[in-house]
From TrEMBL:
Cofactor(s) required, per the database record: FMN
High-level lineage: Bacteria, Pseudomonadati, Pseudomonadota, Alphaproteobacteria, Hyphomicrobiales
Protein name: NADH:flavin oxidoreductase
SUPFAM superfamilies per UniProt: FMN-linked oxidoreductases
GO molecular function: FMN binding; NADP binding; NADPH dehydrogenase activity
Keywords for the protein's UniProt record, in alphabetical order: Flavoprotein, FMN, NADP, Oxidoreductase
Amino acid sequence: MSGQLLFTPMTIRGVTLKNRIVVPPMHQYSADKGFPTDWHLMNAGKFAAGGAGLVIVESTKVERRGCGTVGDLGIWDDKFVAPLNRVVSFIKQQNAVAGIQLGHSGRKARATRPWEGDRPLERTPEIVDWDAWTPVAPSAIAHSERWPVPRALETREIKDLVQAWGQAARRANEAGFDVLELHGAHGYLVHEFLSERANQRSDEYGGSESNRMRFLIEVTEAVRVHWPDHKPLFVRLSVEDNAGWGPEQSARLAKILKAKGVDVIDCSSGGITEMAPILGKEIKYSYQVPLSEYIRRNADIMTMAVGLIIHGDQAEQILRDEQADLIAVGREILNNPNWPMDAALKLGVDGPFRNVPPQFGYWLGTRAKRGFGTRPSTWQSGLQEAGKAS
Ligand SMILES: Cc1cc2nc3c(=O)[nH]c(=O)nc-3n(C[C@H](O)[C@H](O)[C@H](O)COP(=O)(O)O)c2cc1C
C-alpha cells in the first residue's frame, strides 16, 4: 500500500488541504467566558504542527444560551474575532487549514464538564447570568429524566437564532477560518429540531420531516450569505440516532443541503438519547464508516468519516474503498498529535517528515537517513499486527 490517497492534496472550492487527515472538533472545556485561552492555541497548534491537513476548532457557540459548560468557546460577539484569529494564525503558520465548528447545545446546555460527572450544573454565585443561560429547545421536553425541562423557543426567537448562526459565520470568516462546520449532530439544538422525539412543535419548524429540517436549512442559507463562496462548508449529522432518525432521512437532508451550498457531510451518530455520541451501538474499528458510505452513495455528496479510525492503513483503505473523502482522527490524535507523520512513515510515503515543521521534522529525517530510528516508538504496521482486523 503506497498511502497515496491519504496524502494526496484535495481542493474543495478555493481551499486546498495538503492531505485528507482532519482533526475533528473536540471540546476542550477550557475557554474563559467564551474566550480562547493559551490552551486552545497549544491544542490546535500541536495538531497543526503534527501534519494534519485540516484542524477544526471545537463546537463554538453562536449565542450565550447555547453554551454547554462554563468552558465553552463563544463567537456570539465581535469581541471574539481577534482572540480566535490568534489560534487561526498559528494553525496557518504550520501549513494546515483552520476550520471551526459552530454549535448550540440546546436542551443539553448548562452542564458540568464531562470529567465532573456530565450532569446538569448546579447554581452557584459565580455564574452571574444563570437565568439568561436557561436551556432552550424546539419543545419543552427534557433530554432524559436526569436533565431539566428546557424552555420551548418562540417562533420569533427561532428566526433570531437563524440570524445568529449567520453572524457567527461572518465572524468566523473575519477571524480567518477557511472551513466552517455546522454542528447538526449529537442531540444538540439542530439535531433536536430534526428529531421527532425532541421536536413536537406545531408551527412551520415542527411536525413533518420537511418542517423539522427547516431550521437547519434556514441556518445553512443564513450562513452561506456571510460565508464566502470560495470557502467550504461542512455539516455534521448524526446520520443514525437510534431514535427515529436514520440514514434515509439524512441522505434526503444531505441532498437539500448540497443544493444550499454544503460541500461535505461529516458523518457521526447518536446523542439524542442518553447513548453517548462517541460510543455508538457497536464499539469497533470504523464503526461509523458505513454511515459515511451510505450518504456518499445515496446523496452524491462528499463525506468525512469519523469514529475509531486508529491506523494509517485503516484510513487509507476507507478512501480506497470510496467510503469517504476525508478521514477524521479524534481520540487517537489525542494519543499521538503527530499521527499524520506517523501514518506517513508507516504507509511508506515519500518524505514522511516533510509534512511537519523543520523544528522537529529535520531531526527525525536525518536520524532516519542515518539508518537508525526508522521505527518509532509507536511502530506497528496497522490492523493486522493489532490483531483486530475484523
Ligand atoms: C474530548 C472530546 C471532545 C469532543 N468535542 C466535540 C465537539 O466539540 N463537536 C463534535 O461534533 N464532536 C465532538 N467530539 C466527537 C469527536 O469529534 C469524534 O466524532 C469522536 O471522538 C469519534 O471519533 P474518534 O473515535 O476518532 O475519537 C468530541 C470528542 C472528544 C473525545
